[in-house]
## 1
Amino acid sequence: MSPCQEHVLRSGPGKFKQWVIGRLRAALPAIFALLRAVWPIAKIGKTHLVSLHDDVREVMLTDCAFEVPYGTKLKVLMEGQTVFVGMRDSPGYRSQLDRLQSLARKGDMERLAAAAQERAEEIVSAAEGELEVVDTLFRTVTFDVLEEYFGVTPPREGDMRVWSTRMFEYQFLASDKSLKDEILQLAPSLLRHIEDIIQGRLANGDDSEDDYLGRALAKQRENAQDWDDLFIRTMLSALMIGGPPQPPMVLPQAIEQLLRRPGALATAHEAATKGDEELVFGHIFEALRFDPISPILPRKATRDYIIAEGTRRAHKVSKGDTVVVAIQSAMSDPRRIPAPKEFIPTRQHWEYMHFGLGLHECFGRHINRAIFPAICMPLLRRKNLRRAEGPGGHLSFKGLFPAELKVRFDR
Amino acid sequence: MRLRTRSIALEVRPSHKAKLVGILVNLRGGRSRGREGEPGYYPDVLARLPTCHFLSLCVFESADYDPTLVIEANYDGDSGPFWACLQHLVGDELREALRCCKRPLDHSGKLYDSITEPGSRRDPAPFLECHVMRPKAFFHGNRGMPRDRILAEASLANAVQDRLGNGEAGRDKTAEELREGLRTELMPKFPWLAEKPKPRIPLGETALDWLKLAAALFLFLHLCLVPGAVIAGLIGDGKHALLLGAASVAMWAVFNKFRKPLEGVSTTRPGLLLSRLVSNAHIVLAVLAALFLFSWPIVAAGNVLALDLEWSAAWKNSARQLGWGIGWLMLFILPGLLVWMRYLERHDSSQEAPQTDPVMLRQMVELEDWIPQNHMASVVSLRPNIPRRLVAYVGTLLIHLALRAAVRDGYLGSMRTIHCAHWAFINNGSRMLFLSNFDLSWEAYFDDFIEKAHEGVTAIWGGSVGFPPTTMLIEDGAAHGRAFKRWARHSMSPTRFWVSAYPDLTVDQIERNNRIANGLCARRLSPKAANAWAGDL
Amino acid sequence: MGGRPVSYPATSADSWKLAEPHASQAQGMIVSGYNHLPVSQTLFLEFDWDSSTSGGAWLKALEGIAPVTAADGKKDPSVGLGITATGLIKMGVEESVMAGFSAPFLEGMFQVDRMRRLNDRVGTEWSSCVREGGPLWSANTPPPQVHDTSGLMSTLPRRDDTSITTPITVDAMLILFCKDSREGRTWSDRVTEVLARCGVKVVRHRETNLEFDKHDMVREHFGFGDGLSQPIPWDPKAIEGAGRAPDHVNGIALGDILLGHVDGHHETTVGPMVTRGSTHLDDPDDPDNLDLGLNGSYLVVRELWQDVAGFWNNAAEVERELGLDSEARKERPGTWVAERIIGRAMSGDVLRPGGVADRYDPKAPANDFLFFDDDFRGLGCPLGSHMRRGNPRDGLATKASQKDSLLASSNRHRFLRRGRKFGPRIADPMVDDGAERGLIFLIVNADIERQFEFVQQVWMMSPSFGTLFDETDPLIGPGSRFTIGAEPVRRRADIANFTKLAGGEYFFLPSLPAIKWLSEL
């Protein structure tokens, strides 16, 4: 375990609590199957849990009635600025998204994939047959390549990995007091750090357009109003919070699932050896279907709505209620997903909801699509990939974050 | 994995017909890359419908009813995933197509609204599923062959042909040496050659097929025993014999008078139905014996309960009742039903020259014969009288069950050109829908019907308005070649969108590929079997 | 079938007779191949008269110099006449009368969908079975006009022109049968002159012939016996001495070759009924009226050019590739392959595993053979050979129980063949002499769709004939692979096309009363 690992993740809950979380995670498929059969739209208080594929799609696609509840926390992180991630469909939302999307260029993904693969290969080949993948491989590579791609250099004081990960945790997963206190310190640090970078670039007349920041500054020169410093730093900060913490969460889970399925691991190895990145991606995505980054996603009803209207399970949701969509359940609903219990790496795109669906489909999906297989391929190419002996050989968690997974391979 | 055949029929708002046709045609237009305009070959569609064998969408147009949208799907495995795949392939177009349909008046109206309202993002699949029909009769030419297996075996057969080249290399070998050589060579590319091929039709399925047929037949015949049994309860045997004798003599006399075809109707040797019955007398007797045996305990129990008899007396009494029941069935009821049918046949009108709309005909002709397979879609109205309807409903069911149980090799009579065909009743059973995916040209398909399977076709379609005149249910009818073809053409509408998962393969070729594959899977074949196998190459 | 004697000498098609009144009404060429008149002048006519000439004038003029021959006995010389749909319209036959003719006849052979079915042209390209640059002649039938108010027609996947035009337009065809060539030429010159006066141009002229070899066999240019297998029409009412049932192997219903009689699908074709002496449709029940179709028929004509040297050199080449050239042979190189392409030996006998079929009549090859029992796998006569594709008999049956039904069903698609060859005989079949030669392929059938088109589309050109895959007829197909049955494993060859279509059309073969009626127009 690398020394900095210690503080990237907060110390997890107690042993018993962690055990309960683990058991719960493992029991989810069975729980969801039961819910789908007997209580497809479960209501507990003002919370509705939706578990059928059709209904999950309906809720996620109907953004006019169900908004994402991320706005409030985002404002805290952004010092009052709004970010599209937490907005409803509106001209402002579209404008932000369009501006941000205009920064991507043709060839970016290939470049990103190449960089990620090169970095990953360095790490794997340096590993001498045993490797801890969560931090050493996945987190390192992700942060390295994305920092470079976005143009957000690491701070001299503090650790970007800690900042991003904490803020990600606060935004999407937890809101305990100690975390909130920490966030009140970290959020301004990140914003100041990005502002400093922007000012630095402006000051030394750096007009390179290799990264997002450079491209945004170029836009600023053309259209200062749409691309003011505040907008640029808010977007970059959102990207850093939402982006790099995710691959180190999902990729270990994918590798863990592959290690559980020797057949799938063998075909993944074959695909990686052949350099078939599409098929490698298929393996990762399919593995995640069995243990997605988030089994559920929250939505808030902005008006009264009837889910599954016209069917026998039609269910009324009142304005202000919380609707939880179980994407893990939707992705294994046999009513729609062919052979959900089988590992099929060539499934169609629509069978997955890892990136969400509809209006708030993950902004970074193209980036993830490029770097997921790139990071994993050097590892999967290794012969005889297997768990390391001892407890490290099984993926362990701290809270909801993967903490450690050690693997061995023939060099 | 079982091949499922399903269809959906939805009535279309007449004002939206042209729009709907446009939507369906655009499905094709935008997807025919490579082989521009050729119906039936859409690689991207097929990749995204991985279980689909055949899919068709068409709009029926007729002067007799509002336009009707029909979606036909033949696919392996579960239905839910198939409709999901379809909706992800053409969801927006489906929603737009549904907007052209009438709002259903039944419980699915609300669902219809929520899918078709402006800006709706609800999936159309649940609505389609509300309206999916199970066919009343269907037929699969390559039974037990999932699409993946058909395609895998076709690519194996191609690989075999490539290896064999002009055949010179195989000249000095025995068939078995040749086969073993090919097996070894092809094993790396087709690792499944090492496995034992799955049985096409599992034993359980076969047993179930026969059981269903037996149950349906039993139910039908058992009901026919009721009149005789009731009369046996009312009068003594002596009087009963007199009554039955008189009634049956009278009925057979009438039957004999009317059984011959009318002037200008006869096409074949008359008396086909009767001669079939006579030549299969042993089967008829066996069926009656089985009927007696299975009915006995039921009727005996009925006697015990209703008449408060002892079991010993009940057995005796019920045997007597059943005996009379069978007597009435064979001597009076069956000829009676046939006389009734003959009465109808002598009075039914049939349409000699139905008008086919020239625009429709032109479109059908232009869409046909691009690949070795073709599609046909037809809707006909059923004759309104009760016996005809009954024959259509019960007869179709019995024919279906009989075909399912007895036909394992894809042959209807001596024709084997049908991949997937089905009949379904629409509009509360007043119209019969026929959809078929077949080999070769439409003309050839119908010549086959006329020449090789006209009895069955006549039995199923004989109750339809305008069908050529029939005799005794199965005779003549479809054997009137030109009239039958004209009638069928008139009932058809052009298929607007149609895909086939294996557009180059005929039913016969799929069977041949299957024999080649099965032969290669075997570890060892006897010289005789190997020779037979090599004959397929 | 055992030791049944041959039904009739295969080369003679004159062995059945129509009963009166049909015999004196039908054209002679329906019942006879005119073997006694081996030379014929085939004249393709275009109507080019001015408005002052009546549509029937040329027929009246023809009556004087070349009256069409009836089927009531041998005559020397004889005349056959066919008219296309456009020809009939130009002659002034009304639309309502035309509607009584069959659709393929009205639409013509080169209607766009028909070309696709017959494999003459798929998409925008002529297939390789057609002469480079497309056919030279046809009736140039305008594409059918469909009044489409719905606008749906424009949605069709139309990839090519809906009509094609050939350089030569043919409205009618006249065949003058004589004993020798000089007599024929003088006669045809006179006919040409007479027709010219009525505004009818001879736009194409082919001298065609039947050349009997020393075994009394007619051979086409490649050297194979031609017209060896003809169906035997049967009708108890209209054929003299018809037996109790049609011939088991080759029997067909008379209605399949002659309109107005019961056909293979148990129906009688009724043509348009017209009033004698008027041009109108009239009361169908009036006994004085004329059924224009009765005792007439349809004639399918295709002019096929043969590249004899190409064919034989290709056959020899294929033979070498198959490793057969080393085997000592007396025959011409390529014979083995060529025989298999045709399905018959050079002698005319059908190939059988290890040899040829036995003859019942030592003078002529047997024609009442079947395939299922004797050559199921095509080890003798290959499954895809020209002859087996042209008339599979019971060979498409896969089980013994299907033999009879498949044979009966095959026979519903047969037709009479009346083709003759043109062009000089080649001196050395291996050396191209540059001469134009070929066959005026000519068949008589009553239902063009069920007979000629079916055979062409479903048997000859189908890539899925039987269980064959991706191969077409080796003789007239566009060139494809060809499977030759052998043990333990089939041979396979790539055969190119050496028979090109140079023109063709569907003609109506009117009865004599119909000709009379037409001449009054």
## 2
Amino acid sequence: MVLSMRIVLATITLLWIGATTPTLAEPLAVDEVAPGIFVHAGVPQYADGNNRGDISNLGFIVGSEAVAVVDTGNSPSIGKGLREAIRQRTDLPIRYVVNTHMHPDHIFGNAAFAEDRPVFVAHSNFLSALMARADGYQRRLEEDLGTDEARGATLAAPGQTVEPPPGVPLRLDLGGGRVIEVTAWAPAHTNNDLTVLDTATATLFAGDLVFLDRLPTIDGDALGWRKAMDRLAALPAARVVPGHGPASAPWPQALEPQRRYLTVLIDDIRGIQKRGGTIEQAAEQAASSQRSLWRLFDEDNPRNAVTVFAALEWE
Amino acid sequence: MSTTVKRLTVTVAALVLSCGIASAQLNSPKESTSQKQGDAKPDDYERWDAVREVYFPGRTIEDGSAFLSLDAPYRAQDAALVPVTVKAALPADAGWSIKTLTLLIDGNPVPLAGKFHLHDEAAGTGHRNLSIGTRVRVNEYTLIHAVAETTDGRLFSAERYVKAAGGCSAPAMKNPEQAMARLGKMKLNLPQSVPVGGDVTAQLLVSHPNHSGMQFDQISRTYVPPYFIRSIKVSYAGQPVMDVETDISLSEDPSLHFTFTPKAAGDLKAEVVDSKDQTYTGDWQVIPQPAS
């Protein structure tokens, strides 16, 4: 409660001022997956004191005039580490910070970039989705990573939002012919998913619209997600940076494991419903054939099944 | 037990519960009649003693485990959507049956999830075999209870311990636009075969956000106002099947599994009223098949 009160003290513009950010941070290890595109791959785990919340993929794109960051990690210290990694490589201004969706492991490092005064870019549904959950996210951050991290995890309202279709992608010019395209999607993994496409290198930052290794989690619309995959596959990309999994993978092949999982999950649940089965049976049985293919399957699959079962009841 | 002391304690307990602080202390905790469940602690039973005095003041509640069962996952996948099923199979020679079933989530700010008034076309006899299921929010690790009131005025309970937390304050609606677009829509699911005169378990779904009043929105810096379904009345061929009083503990898009006995073709009707006094109705024709 103390923590949420601190959040409540934010200004009416919803701009939360970073009161404290951790001072020292090791630069995160990053791979240059394509010229000027750097990615840090998180571990396929839940956030805890050992991994410090280093559980999702983060990256940055360097143009000739500016830098764009894509996702900032699950804590201020992870965000700080990402910023250190940027500063090891370039002194160019960090002009944009794109949050691919409202989940904590993609946004709680935002405070580390406050001093750069970037434009925070997010989906037009981002703020309402985040604010409906921020209280719980803050509490969980404190439980998982401690009070200091939670205190530093302040957030800024997006300075620029992107509308899903019929809205058009946002083009951000980083200089030297590097223009990145930020696309907003209809509800899929969440109701506020964004992707970032670097046309110069045909590299797609998919955010959590693409999972590899770690089981996809559904916090939006499973059917919408499966539909979005066809459009994702058609994007002119040669490689993808998934939200979870390796730093990069060939595109669109990287989509296949997730497509299979979601398809089996949906089909299994439809079958269970057709036989008059229950939501409890779905939690136990649905997609069990996919168990050996994913990390955190036992942790996340039953809940996915419950979510999808309740959604498919309205088909 | 001293009636005066008890009544005073009950008032305190009711106040404490209504403030959302779920642990109420009694001066003289007494032994619970029902069997202990899993990880339930003495505190959980003290809380049950407080809760039962709120809903059944001064009444004796007997152990119903011989004919009454309560099913729920020990560890819930989603605390905002915990499936709960109550089943009863009365002894063949029982001269009584079940008139109402009350489902209580002890640890919730409003423990009452639903009070099911059961009807049978043979008026007054109630149900002998029944299965009622719904989905509830669970705010913290807690015992949950089903209390059956019999036609001869006795109370029996079954209980279960559930590990789930945060279900009341969990944000609603993964896809808010879609959810609000179908507000008040209803769906009836029937099994593939509906035999004449057989016990048929149907599922009624009502699309409604069922906001608990505990979901905090930081844009408005307030709690999303409670907005929930208050009552559901189900009838078949003009005869009441079940009237349910509900509260904030039901999950978003409330789901009810219930049993009815179609002796001939008829309309199954549902009338749902929410906390803004909006009424939604559903009407489905049911044509039972002769048993082969």
